Amino acid sequence: MRLSSLTDYAVVMMAAAARQCGASCRLNATTLAGETGLPLPTVQKLVSKLSAAGLIESARGTGGGFRLARPAAAISMADIVEAIEGPIALTTCVDTARHDCAVEGGCQVKPHMSVVNGAVKGALAGVSLASLSRNG
Length: 136
Known about the structure:
Elements: H1 5-20, H2 29-36, H3 40-52, E1 56-59, E2 65-68, H4 77-85, H5 110-125, H6 129-132
Antiparallel strand pairs: 1-2
Helix pairs in contact: 1-2, 1-3, 1-4, 2-3
């Protein structure tokens, strides 16, 4: 499993936002692009996705910008991944709405894949943005 570069950038951006001021002040996309080295259009796209997922709050106009919607300790790596990638589902067999696996009918592993998926999701949920934003 490999996360998309957009998800990787979202983690970098959220960690930088947490280091800057967390939920206590507003940042702008230009400042965050400068700090992270990410292109401004990418930061703007991520702000939109992360805002839609409820991880950041944004405001337009004078005094606008964005900030974390909750403390960094209350945002997990799983939250960020799901905001960009969608629900964590390692295989199609953990998605009960899909039935496009060629061996689904006789698969002996399928009943166990939800446990594997839960373990991966749990591992990501156990890593807080606060821990990702600490220096060193």
